[in-house]
Amino acid sequence: MIHVENVTKSFSNGKGIFNVSFRVEEGDIFGFLGPNGAGKSTTIRQLMGFMKPNEGNLSISKYNCWEDAPTIQKFVGYLPGEIALIEKMKGTEFLNLLEDMRSLRGTSRKDALIDRFQFDPSIQIRKMSKGMKQKVGIVAAFMHDPSIYILDEPTSGLDPFMQREFLNLLGEERGRGKTILMSSHYFPEVERTCNRASIIKEGRIVRTDSMTDLRSLQTKKVEVTFEDEVEACSYADQFPDQVESRSYNRVIVPIKGSYDAFVTSLQNHSVTNMEMESQTLEEVFMDIYNHKNAPSDQEEEL
Ligand SMILES: Nc1ncnc2c1ncn2[C@@H]1O[C@H](COP(=O)(O)OP(=O)(O)OP(=O)(O)O)[C@@H](O)[C@H]1O
């Protein structure tokens, strides 16, 4: 549905994005995750046809993002990272103008969205707070009920309550079969919302995976309590590669992926208690980001 293939866009200062590839399939909520300056907006601007790549191809459905930019800009629900609204207009005037441009008067979801995000659109845009402007941008991106959304840091400027409301809306849209690409630098948001994600660092994709696969990279630490110290020592001696540490009758066993070997290792040992601690997905992302978990060739996995 959304294809980014070997895209390079470099600026005169040497920054930009380099050989970026990923695919968003129909019905995905796809997270595009990276810190400030990683290249998220540069990629998204090319997807919306505002910028031409130096190399590579970007397409949405059957449309080429550069050549068919007007078509793409019409049917995609786009929320820019830096919202440039017509400052002297009132929110209502701006949204009505969009409704007219899209021939939607009376049929759009505008009023329901304004109610949902609880703001007063009758205020002049230049007098609105950042969060209010963001809400106007959200209404503008969602009101024509598009089938594809491209959202650049959509929760930026929203308070936690409104962030939750927005993520609920994304879940509902996904339930209606919509395809969503959203950039974020906030790990828990992507963990909670997306089914797949790409991680971008300094203009290059570090990894693309399903959330399920990213979760399987979580290291769990199991603290096993044996009946007595002799039993714990016997276990630690038998499985020195599995045991991270031992203290009296307890051992710590880190596990990544399958539990089979761990479960088998406990046979014939007298265990009285087990407690498990999981790495958060944010820690997994940070490991990937710092290359501890990245595939050795740094190729993305599609
Ligand atoms: N027009 C431009 N001219 C020169 N450098 C640019 C231009 N646009 C972006 N850059 C640089 O390219 C890099 C990627 O920027 P980009 O805005 O895509 O990052 P981002 O991941 O969206 O960050 P943020 O989360 O801060 O919005 C940055 O180093 C930025 O300074």
Automatic annotation (TrEMBL):
Record key words, sorted: ATP-binding, Nucleotide-binding, Transport
SMART domains: AAA (SM00382)
One Pfam family of this chain: ABC_tran
Residue ranges occupied by any ABC transporter domain in the UniProt entry: 2-227
GO MF term set: ATP binding; ATP hydrolysis activity
Domain of life of the source: Bacteria
Entry-linked CDD domains: ABC_DR_subfamily_A
Entry similarity comment: Belongs to the ABC transporter superfamily.
Protein name, per record: ABC transporter ATP-binding protein
Organism field: Pontibacillus chungwhensis BH030062
